[in-house]
Structures are given as C-alpha cells and as structure tokens.
Write a structure and sequence with these properties.
2 domains; glycosyltransferase; single chain; transmembrane helix; LipidA_mod_glycosyltrf_83; 5 strands; Rhodanese domain-containing protein; about 5% strand; Rhodanese-like_dom
Length: about 500
C-alpha cells in the first residue's frame, strides 16, 4: 500500500520531535517541580494542593517501574507531545489541508523553544496542551458537522483536561459562545447538552469535594501566585516573551491564522470558532496569565495559518511554499534555547555565555533551566545530607527523619534518599503538606533548607540547632537557591500535629 506524502510528513515530524526529547533526556536531570509530581504517584488522591489528580495517576503508573530514570518519568510527557503533533496535523487535515499545510503547521511547533521545554517535562503543562488541542479538535468537528457524538467526545476530553490542570476553565469559557449562533444553539438543544454538563460536573465532583474538605488550598496557591508573580507582570513584556518563546518566524503563520478565521466563508462557522478562541484569550489576559498559559491557544491557531498559506498564498504561487519552508527551517537554530539538546558545558559555551543577560550576586552562570544542572547538584546535596546522618549516634538515628523545606528538596530525598542511606522525608511545602506525619516528633530531625532563610524558625521549634554545612550551586538563577544548608535539629518543642497547624497558612512559602 502506497504511503501518502501527508503520512510521511507527520511520521518524520513525530520521529524528529521524539528524537529531540530523548536527546534532552540524555543531557538533563529533573526540573524541581517534577520531583513533586513524581511523588504524587505514592500518594494517590482525588486532589492535590496545587493541581488536579490526573498527574498522580500517571506518576503511579510510571512508578511501577521502580526507576528513577529521567526517561522513564518522561514517558507520558513524550507520548503527549507526539499526540500534540498528530492532533495538530489532524486538525489541518480536517480543514482540508495537504502535505504542504501539514509541514507548515508542524514546523511552527518544532521551532518554538517554548513548546520544546513545556512539552519535555513531567508536569501538567504538556498534558494540558494535549487535552486543549484534543478538545479544540472535537469542538471544531462539532461546529462543522453538528453530530451528537462529538459533543460527548468533547465532554469526556474536557473532563480529562480539568482533572489535569485548572486552566481548562479558560477553554471552557469560550464554549458559551456556541449559544449565540442559531445553528449551534439549535443543535445543542436537540442534543440535550445539559446532560453533558451534568456528566462533567459529576465527574469533577470528587476533586471539588477534596478541595472543599481541605479548605480550597488551590485558592491559597492562586493568591500566593498573584501576590508574588502575576500582579507584577507587564502585558507587553509577556507578549514579547510569548513571541520569542514561540519563535518570531512562526508568527508568520500564527498571524495568518487569525486573519484566515476573520475572512473565511462560511463566516457563521469560522467566525464562531474565532469568537470561542477570542473569549479564551481575553479571559487569560484579564486573569494576568503568564506567556506560557497562551501556548495551547497558539496550537489551535497554527492550523488555520497553515490553511491560509495553502488556500491563498500557495494557490497564487505554488513555488511560494519553498521560501516559506526555508524561512521556517531557519527557526531550528532556536531549539537549544528551549531544551537540553546540548551537554551542560556545550550549552554554556555556545548559548549561555553569548545570549544570557541575567546575573545573580554570588552566582556564576544563572542558568534558567534547572534540569540542565540538577543531575550534578542533587548528588552533592544528598551526599552532605547522608554524611551528616552517619555522624549521628544510634540513639539519634532512631526514628530520625529529614525535613525538606522546599518540595523539590523533599522530592529529591524521597526519590534518591535510600541510595544515600537516608531516612524518610517530610515537608510542609505544597502537596507534601497533605502527606506530613502526625503524632510525636522524633528527638532528632535533619533539615535541608535553601539559603538558611528559615533559621529563626528552627530556634522556635527546637531546643538545639546545629548548622552542619552547605552546598553551593554556581548555576542558580535566583539568589535564594545559591546555597542549600543542612541542619541537625534536636529537642522538638511541639508535635507533628502542632507543626501542621503552624504551617497550615504557609504551604506555599
């Protein structure tokens, strides 16, 4: 059977995309947030402090391998990024695109450094992008064909999206637009859309109940996020970052996508799609979203830009595909800015020294991608922690635990601690708060802290504090992560139950 040109194009892009991510796995360790997400697999629940429960289920499946390999814990992330490639291609084909349009659309994804990194890590972000693109695919199919099955498919994928990341509400915000068109409103009423809404609410209710039972910690997280980050964002600066992170060359296609949606006939269909997308964009801007919040929307615009070039530019001058393809291919030089395709030393020599403009007092390199150097940093930290534990007397070792002040520190000890002979770890940061022990505290606690910033706390919580040592991180891009300190804390003045009460309102500090 002859394989079509379109199939070849999609297959090549999937292979190249996967190859780049596997190469990045080889050159990198874990980003800090990943260490938290991996641990959710040991604590399955209907909700977590920062995110919905689906990431925990994926982590649990990965944990069946009992491996600490970067590759193993990126399996689902890699599958999701390949799924995104295939769904964007399917969307282009649904719109009537050919191999040239598919090449144009997929190249925009490949050359975007923001997509490379956000789709590399085991975080809800890549899965959110996958579900968003799949949701949009079914939404588009429903608008074009008005078939009831696509309404139900959209319902189920929207459930999965909400249980992956709460930014699904931005997508859902655009759906009421369907009621303003007589064509889709009539179809929705005929298809009894209220049943879909009821199923959606029932499916997400366990997570909502968990949030209610835990006093809605997600609101505390958002409050902290706004006070420390989002309220200080500049829309112009975030737009600039969005253009750079998605590659300025790709905006030749992205802008064309918006134009196509505005001029395409029949306007009652494509203008409706544009309105749905616009509502999501406006809601994100109103909510002061970071630039990477807009990545899923960019993924839904790219197919229309590809079709614009096929139907208008390529139809006018067939040869115009080739200069556009060459221009987009030039954007491949930006891939190293988004993922660790180079070794750390080569990245520093070829990229960081030439283009980095951020410095940290006392630091050396200020590398933004923690995964680039984490495989070198954590062994040093855990070695110091292990040596400290070995200095304890047998009586001190009895029931001794490690307190990781930040969830990435707790996650590192949980993942690799046994290799260094360390006891179990606990934390009150992020979702680790939910798993913190209760009852009496042991007589001795080892504390792992950033920059010694909580030392005054320890003096109020223990009768004796001993600062053992510190590990310097020359790659830190924040002053507070330049050093990690190890303490021996003895004679606790409260129980674990008291500790949970003390830190209840400080989960995200």
């Amino acid at each position: 059977m002859k394989i079509s040109n379109t199939t070849w194009v999609i297959s090549v892009f999937c292979a190249v995309k996967l190859g780049l991510h596997l190469l990045a796995d080889y050159h990198s360790g874990f980003q800090g947030d990943e260490l938290l997400h991996i641990q959710t697999g040991d604590h399955l629940a209907s909700g977590y402090m920062e995110f919905p429960p689906l990431i925990g289920l994926l982590a649990w499946i990965q944990d069946l391998s009992h491996s600490d390999s970067v590759f193993v814990h990126h399996i689902f992330a890699h599958l999701a990024c390949i799924g995104i490639i295939m769904l964007v291609a399917r969307t282009i084909l649904l719109l009537g695109g050919d191999a040239r349009a598919v090449f144009t659309g997929l190249m925009c994804i490949l050359i975007a450094p923001g997509f490379e990194r956000s789709q590399q890590l085991f975080q809800p972000v890549v899965f959110s992008q996958f579900w968003w693109v799949l949701n949009f695919y079914y939404l588009l199919k429903y608008i074009l064909r008005l078939e009831k099955k696509y309404l139900w498919y959209l319902t189920f994928t929207l459930i999965a999206a909400f249980l992956t990341k709460y930014d699904a509400v931005f997508f859902a915000a655009g759906l009421p637009v369907l009621l303003f068109s007589r064509r889709t409103r009539t179809a929705l009423i005929q298809h009894q859309f209220w049943k879909c809404l009821l199923v959606f609410l029932l499916a997400i209710s366990p997570n909502l109940i968990w949030q209610y039972a835990n006093d809605f910690p997600v609101f505390q997280m958002f409050s902290r996020l706004y006070s420390t980050q989002l309220d200080h964002l500049s829309f112009i600066e975030e737009l600039r970052s969005l253009i750079l992170s998605t590659n300025p060359l790709a905006w030749l296609v992205i802008i064309a996508g918006f134009i196509y949606l505005g001029i395409k006939s029949p306007r009652n269909i494509y203008f409706l799609v544009l309105c749905c997308i616009t509502v999501s964009i406006v809601y994100m801007i109103y909510s002061k979203g970071k630039q990477y919040y807009f990545y899923p929307i960019i993924l839904t615009i790219i197919p229309f830009g590809a079709i614009f070039y096929q139907e208008i530019i390529f139809a006018w001058r067939k040869w115009s595909f080739y200069p556009l393809a060459i221009i987009l291919c030039l954007g491949l030089v930006m891939i190293p800015f988004g993922m660790p395709v180079y070794s750390l030393d080569r990245y520093i020599d070829r990229i960081h020294k030439k283009y980095a403009d951020n410095t940290v007092p006392g630091g050396k390199y200020a590398i933004s991608f923690e995964e680039y150097y984490s495989q070198f940093m954590w062994p040093q930290v855990l070695t110091l922690l292990g040596k400290t534990y070995e200095t304890l007397s047998p009586a001190q070792k009895q029931h001794c635990l490690v307190w990781g002040r930040h969830y990435r520190q707790a996650g590192a000890v949980a993942l690799w601690g046994k290799q260094y002979g360390l006891p179990a770890v606990f934390s009150y940061h992020g979702s680790f708060y939910s798993w913190a022990p209760l009852g009496n505290m042991p007589a001795t606690i080892l504390v792992l802290d950033y920059n010694g910033s909580w030392e005054e706390d320890y003096k109020e919580l223990f009768t004796k504090i001993t600062k053992v040592g510190r590990v310097y991180n020359p790659y830190a891009d924040e002053e507070e992560t330049l050093f990690q300190y190890v303490y021996i804390c003895e004679g606790p003045l409260q129980s674990f139950d008291d500790m949970k009460r003390i830190y209840k309102d400080r989960i995200y500090e």
